Amino acid sequence: MIAQPKILVVYFTQTGQLRRIIDHVVAPLEGKATVVYEEIVPVQPFPFPWSKQEFFDAMPETVLGKPRNIMPLKVNPDEHFDLVIMAYQPWFLSPSQPVAAFLQSEDGRRLLKDKPVVTLLGCRNMWINAQEKMKRYLQQAGAKLVGNIVLMDKHPNLVSLITILRWATKGKKEAFFVFPPAGVQEKEIVESGRFAAPIQVALEKGNYDQLHAQLLELDSVELKPGLIVLEQRGVKPFRFWANYISKKGGPGDVSRQGRVSMYRAILLLAIPVLSPFTTIASWLKLLLSRKQLGKEVAYYKGVHLREE
Ligand SMILES: Cc1cc2nc3c(=O)[nH]c(=O)nc-3n(C[C@H](O)[C@H](O)[C@H](O)COP(=O)(O)O)c2cc1C
After folding, report:
1. Which residue ranges does the chain devote to CATH 3.40.50.360?
2. What torsion, rounded to 10 degrees, do the Cα atoms 19, 25, 28, 30 define?
3. What DSSP line would sit under 188-207, residue for residue?
4. Residue among 129, 153, 164, 185 whose CB has most ligand 1 atoms within 8 A, to mutate
5. How many Cα atoms occupy the beta-carbon half-sphere of 223 within 13 Å?
6. What's the gap in Å between 182 CA and the centre of ligand 1?
7. Matching CATH number, 6-223, of 2.60.40.10, 3.40.50.360, 3.40.50.970, 3.40.449.10
8. What distance in Å separates the CA atoms of residue 79 and residue 84, rounded to the nearest whole number?
9. Following CA atoms 126, 128, 134, 136 in sequence, which dihedral angle do they give, to the nearest 10 degrees?
């Protein structure tokens, strides 16, 4: 009997949304591949729901890539896997802290070395900068990114911002007033099983060269140019505030809470005020430099890492 291919799924999830996405993507592979799950567990758990202050206090270390420690992995880091599915969520335009801790850990890097990796994201809609950081982490670990699947909330940016903040800070996911339920739409989750077919073919052939192109044909990544403009605008200020806040102390320090509150107020004001401008800016960019923006869209949809 020929041994089944082995997949390692590494993930972290606070609400269980990402685990549901994983289960739908992986379900059609049942009986065709052996799937091992590794849930990343922070030593000191992150709260859910978050208090507003704790939520924004998590920003600096997330953006600066200085995550809280995680528990030792259960899986043997030298075990062979044919494919790793790295499932994660962005926090503040960066990989979430537990995921960053895994990617920085010696065991995590050993597991990833020389492995083909498919990234699987469950997010609001701002993931491109997090994925760029992910590409770099994978490159540093000696892994090969061979596919990317992004499930996101397809509602308008400001709508999803309001619903996700309510979910994260109150634990309330359900629809309210004129707002839809928070998170990735159920239809997107249920239909994500379609991505299993090209993964299975690649696993059987032991060749992942065509995988990402095939995933893209199934709309594994949708990217609105306006969101690229918005995210690119956000990266520098996030970095500035991360450094500014962390100069006053570490996570949760009383001495930095004044700056955290300032950041929180400015961010919550800036997003609704800047959103229409960035939409207009992206239309202008589309009109004036359509080719350039088209190239950006193609790049961010891809799995290749651009040299800086
Ligand atoms: C602290 C925090 C920051 C977040 N930042 C982003 C972000 O920058 N971009 C985004 O698309 N989603 C963001 N989200 C939403 C998450 O990516 C994710 O979709 C949501 O938290 C549910 O994930 P989980 O239950 O799998 O952990 C953020 C969530 C949290 C809790």
Report:
1. 6-223
2. -40
3. HHHGGGGGHHHHHHHHHHT-
4. 164
5. 26
6. 11
7. 3.40.50.360
8. 12
9. -150
Distance CA 305, CA 134 (A): 10
Structure token pair of residue 116: 């083909």
Test site for ligand 1: of 19, 89, 131, most ligand atoms within 8 A of the Cβ = 89
pLDDT, one tens digit for every residue, the chain (308 residues) = 568 999 999 999 999 999 999 999 999 999 999 999 999 999 999 999 999 999 999 999 999 999 999 999 999 999 999 999 999 999 999 999 999 999 999 999 999 999 999 999 999 999 999 999 999 999 999 999 999 999 999 999 889 999 999 999 999 999 999 999 999 999 999 999 999 999 999 999 999 999 999 999 999 999 988 888 888 888 999 999 999 999 999 999 999 999 999 999 998 888 778 778 877 887 887 788 888 888 999 999 999 999 87
The answer to whether residues 118 and 147 touch, using CB atoms and an 8 Å cutoff, is: yes
Q: How many residues does the chain have?
A: 308
Asked if the peptide bond before residue 49 counts as cis, ω within 30 degrees of 0, the response is yes
Q: Which atom of ligand 1 is nearest to the CA of 58?
A: 1
The reported pTM is 0.96
